[in-house]
Design brief:
NAD(P)_OxRdtase_dom_sf; alpha/beta; binds NADP nicotinamide-adenine-dinucleotide phosphate; TIM Barrel; 10 helices; 13% strand; Oxidoreductase, aldo/keto reductase family protein
């Protein structure tokens, strides 16, 4: 992990201009929530080409013109090839092209972290990373990431030790990564970035058993387990006089396996509120109680 973070809280921006992913998004909310996050001290922004097919990057590019670029860490991702029906393409030629296009949309000279968003089935993963390393040497990107790679693909990509970050689905209630992957990441100095840290809002405590339909990614057993675990989060949150969202984000920030946590916000109020979790520090007992409550 080659970058220094002031704290472990970043912002996920798939709801910033992500019209292709979410219904009824208001673009002005996207502008406002990025500003709100930066103003509240969240200075890492996680975006991707596929969030609005470039629109999220463009909005972020507009907003950062009013801020000190050197104080902001921008992570973006690419792999979906518009010339091939948006299928994943990890070829060196395509990756170089997509980085150049992201730079233009973000209106910046460099990207702090560039992730290969999804693996394709055929490209040599090491060749893909070596192509990104050339861009790193040229100063166009500062760190190399992979996302949604299987453990074998990650190891292939990192054969020469050049992967800096790994972003995957992982949450308090979805702990598959904890097996051998975390040990490998630690040994190789690769920062882990979990996505869906709030289980798309379910871990905030705003939803309950009656909202089962909204969370079709989760099977019944997992959904019930999360609803039960919320009681423990509630107790910890009350002890700190904060919300469940703050308590759950404090757990990720205290977790030594996690390099950065990137909850997504829908509007400026949520973004401002997320920043409050930076100051929540769990005791060891609280950390363990939350940890146990959500283990399968
Ligand atoms: N690499 C990848 O393939 C990949 C895949 C998915 C996501 N990601 C990244 O990970 C980020 C996080 O994922 P996500 O946004 O989908 O899910 P998430 O972080 O698990 O949940 C975000 C949701 O939590 C709720 N929320 C946020 N702030 C809140 C607050 N202060 N108080 C109460 N509720 C709050 C909102 O729910 P409501 O909308 O219901 O209000 C929001 O939409 C994305 O933005 C994206 O950058 C990456």
């Amino acid at each position: 992990m080659t970058l220094e973070f002031t704290h472990k809280l970043g912002l996920g921006t798939n709801k910033v201009g992500g019209h292709n992913l979410f219904k009824d998004l208001d673009e002005q909310d996207g502008y406002d929530l990025v500003r709100a996050a930066l103003d509240a001290g969240i200075n890492v922004l996680d975006t991707a080409f596929v969030y609005g097919l470039g629109r999220s990057e463009e909005i972020i590019g507009d907003v950062i013109q009013d801020y000190d670029r050197s104080k902001i860490i921008i992570a973006t991702k690419g792999a979906q090839n518009p010339d091939n029906d948006y299928k994943s393409d990890n070829s060196p030629e395509f990756l170089v092209k997509t980085v150049e296009e992201s730079l233009k949309r973000l209106k910046t000279d460099y990207i702090d972290i560039f992730y290969i968003h999804f693996p394709d089935e055929t490209s040599d993963k090491l060749a893909a990373v070596e192509a990104l390393d050339k861009l790193k040497q040229a100063g166009k990107i500062r760190a190399i990431g992979v996302s949604n790679f299987s453990f074998d693909q990650l190891k292939e990509a990192n054969a020469t030790g050049k992967v800096d970050f790994d972003e995957d689905y992982y949450s308090l209630a979805h702990r598959d990564e904890e097996q051998e992957r975390f040990a490998y990441l630690r040994e190789n100095g690769i920062g882990f970035v979990p996505y869906f840290p709030l289980e798309s809002g379910l871990l905030t405590g705003r939803y309950g058993a009656a909202d089962r339909d909204k969370f079709d990614r989760l099977d019944d057993a997992k959904f019930d387990q999360i609803i039960k675990g919320l009681d423990v989060l509630k107790q910890v949150a009350e002890a700190h006089d904060v919300t469940l969202t703050h308590a759950v984000l404090a757990w990720y920030m205290a977790n030594p396996n996690i390099g950065l946590v990137i909850p997504g916000a829908r509007n400026a109020e949520q973004a401002t509120d997320l920043a409050k979790s930076i100051d929540v520090h769990l005791t060891e007992d609280e950390y363990k109680a939350i940890d146990e409550a959500f283990k399968a």
